[in-house]
Automatic annotation (TrEMBL):
The protein's name in its UniProt record: Ethylammeline chlorohydrolase
Domain Amidohydrolase-related: 118-438
Zinc recorded as keyword: yes
Record keywords, A-Z: Hydrolase, Metal-binding, Zinc
Transmembrane stretches, start-end: none
Cofactor: Zn(2+)
Keyword Mitochondrion on entry: no
């Protein structure tokens, strides 16, 4: 085989990595051969086979999305139609669970979602989908297809079907209850392990299997114990939604002898460096005190477990990490997730800095650089990878190119601040993963995707799913009562 081409990518700004942190070069160059970076700096003196000049742009490490939107999102329905439990965000107890999407539609959702992640500059994704429209949770076939999609598009992905032993329901009296089927949860875990083996056999340089139980309140002690063993056996990452809602901490308190969610995980042997924990908003258990919050922060710090912050989705739900500063001070690793549409890491970084300043009432609590680090180095640490989230010799050539030429970008003094506070995902012009061009000029180029067709089909599929909301919503009101437009729709005469 001929030696792989040495490619030089130059731009007005390059984010390299040196002395354990990012570093700016202006102008700068990244030189890579195959999947590996050879050089990052001002001037490479060796011979190169190909030159790419990105012009007035910020060339930096690709973003790592630890709670990546892997679905057709429905937030646009629920954002102004509250409360969620009355609007199909929790299923009615009398709903006979069934799959509301066909296999083909589920497959389409993966293509749609992964395409949007790439367009937003995400190079490493740990996707998540909703379990609300399903007969139970996800299955292995769905993820075999997800692996095909990720690989064909060129997205680096950690994949695994979500499984659960139980889920929330709205009871006939409007109270929130739970329904359990532990055997199903344990079978789901077995399938998830089988899927990890399959991904291993597949031997793709960009795919990994991981374990994705749905959320802590949907686990039983037996499922948590089995999960803990499976993580050891597979030596893989694991993600569990935890400390996310008041409902959850109350439920965990009730079923797990008054312990906090993090205590339950620690006791199950599940708090460790391979654990990814969205969203970390409710620390200290059901009745938090300063002491119980501090104890939970210590559990996180001592175990090296990773928090996943999703500022956009959290802010939309009127909540953010109040313990941001003590968590940081304790050295808890934090990465970012998109979790909702648009899967825009730049918007999440901007909102993350804003929300951190608001909840701490401290303008110095968080900087653009802090959140840029979370989207890159924090994510890499959470996934146990020292070769992604940074550009330096030996690292993977996972690169996101953000245009600084758009008038909407405003003025540039520091490119990180500019892209975080003035930019958004639509400014991403190119994405390279493992040395391969995946997005170029805002088009998918490894596997061509017709974005107009994708958009059209997504709208049709969304409208179909919307029509199924009455079936699974509390008291089954028609769509016209579940979802009202922002202003009265003028009646046609
Ligand atoms: Zn989430």
């Amino acid at each position: 085989m001929a030696a792989q081409k040495i490619i030089r990518l130059s731009a007005t700004w390059v984010v390299g990595y040196k002395d354990n942190d990012h570093r700016l070069y202006s102008p700068g160059e990244v030189v890579y051969q195959g999947e590996r970076v050879l050089f990052v700096g001002e001037r490479y003196t060796g011979a190169v086979d190909e030159e790419i000049n990105a012009g007035n742009a910020l060339v930096g490490p690709g973003f790592i999305d630890l709670d990546a939107l892997g679905d057709l999102d429905t937030t646009v329905l629920g954002f102004d139609n509250q409360p969620g439990w009355q609007k199909g965000r929790v299923v009615a107890a009398d709903w006979q669970r069934r799959d509301l999407y066909s296999r083909e539609e589920l497959n389409f959702n993966k293509l749609y979602a992964y395409t949007h992640l790439l367009l937003n500059g995400v190079t490493s994704a740990v996707p998540i989908t909703s379990i609300l429209y399903r007969q139970w949770a996800e299955d292995i076939d769905e993820y075999r297809h997800a692996a095909d999609v990720a690989e064909s598009l060129g997205l680096r992905a950690w994949l695994g079907p979500a499984f659960m032993a139980g889920h929330n329901v709205v009871e006939a009296d409007g109270q929130i209850g739970m329904r359990f089927d532990e055997a199903r949860g344990l079978a789901g875990l077995e399938d998830a392990e089988r899927f990890i083996e399959e991904i291993r056999m597949r031997d793709s340089p960009i795919l990994r299997g991981f374990l994705a139980p749905d959320r802590i309140e949907g686990c039983t002690p037996a499922l948590l114990a089995a999960l803990s063993e499976a993580v050891q056996r597979q030596e893989c990452s694991v993600r569990l939604h935890c400390c996310q809602s008041e409902l959850e901490v109350n439920e965990v308190d009730r079923r797990f002898q008054g312990r906090s969610s993090l205590q339950v995980l620690a006791d199950a042997g599940l708090l460790h460096k391979k654990m990814l924990l969205p969203h970390g908003q409710f620390l200290g258990g059901k009745s938090p005190t300063q002491a119980s919050i501090t104890r939970d922060i210590r559990l996180l710090a001592d175990s090296a477990a990773n928090l996943v912050l999703c500022p956009l989705v959290s802010g939309r739900h009127a909540k953010y990490l109040e313990q941001y500063l003590p968590l940081r001070e304790a050295g808890v690793n934090m990465g970012l997730g998109t979790d909702t549409f648009p899967p825009d890491m730049l918007t999440n970084m901007h909102l993350g800095t804003v929300l951190s300043r608001v909840v701490t009432q401290n303008v110095q609590a968080a900087s653009a650089a802090d959140y840029y680090r979370m989207a890159t180095l924090g994510g890499a640490k959470a996934l146990g990878r020292e070769d992604i989230g940074r550009l330096c010799p030996g690292a993977q050539a996972d690169i996101t190119i953000i245009s600084l030429d758009e008038p909407a970008m405003g003025q540039i003094f520091d490119p990180i601040t500019a892209v975080v506070i003035n930019g958004n995902g639509r400014d991403v012009r190119g994405v390279i993963i493992a040395g391969e061009k995946v997005v170029w000029d805002r088009q998918l180029v490894k596997h061509r995707v017709d974005l107009d067709q994708l958009h059209y089909q997504a709208q049709r599929q969304f409208e179909k799913l919307m029509r199924t909301y009455p079936e699974r919503s509390f008291q089954h009101p028609p769509c016209s009562r579940l979802f009202t437009p922002s202003f009265p729709l003028n009646p046609r005469t």
